[in-house]
């Protein structure tokens, strides 16, 4: 498992996930993103699942947990480009409203409130 965490703005972070997300990898990601949220900087997380091939239930827990943390700062979450299998998992877990098929730039524009077209 490999991941990249990029602060796009002071408030917005993009998390790119590669390979397989299991309970071992979840701990690394949780520590980094939770620290940023609790410091008061991050209010939006864009999870890019485009290059993720597998995610177990701990991955869903990771997303849900960060969403709960963001509630304290009226934060937002976008689940970007999940595979068809992950999309079903998100539907069953109630996360379908946060799924978006777009580029990272389009997701960032949506967060900023920019509407095109």
From TrEMBL:
The gene is spoIIAA. It comes from the Bacteria. InterPro entries: Anti-sigma_ant (IPR003658), Anti-sigma_F_ant (IPR014237), STAS_dom (IPR002645), STAS_dom_sf (IPR036513). This is Anti-sigma F factor antagonist. It holds the Pfam family STAS. In the phosphorylated form it could act as an anti-anti-sigma factor that counteracts SpoIIAB and thus releases sigma f from inhibition. GO terms for biological process: sporulation resulting in formation of a cellular spore. One of its GO terms (molecular function) is antisigma factor binding. Residues 13-95 form the STAS domain. Keywords: Phosphoprotein, Sporulation. Signal peptide: none annotated.
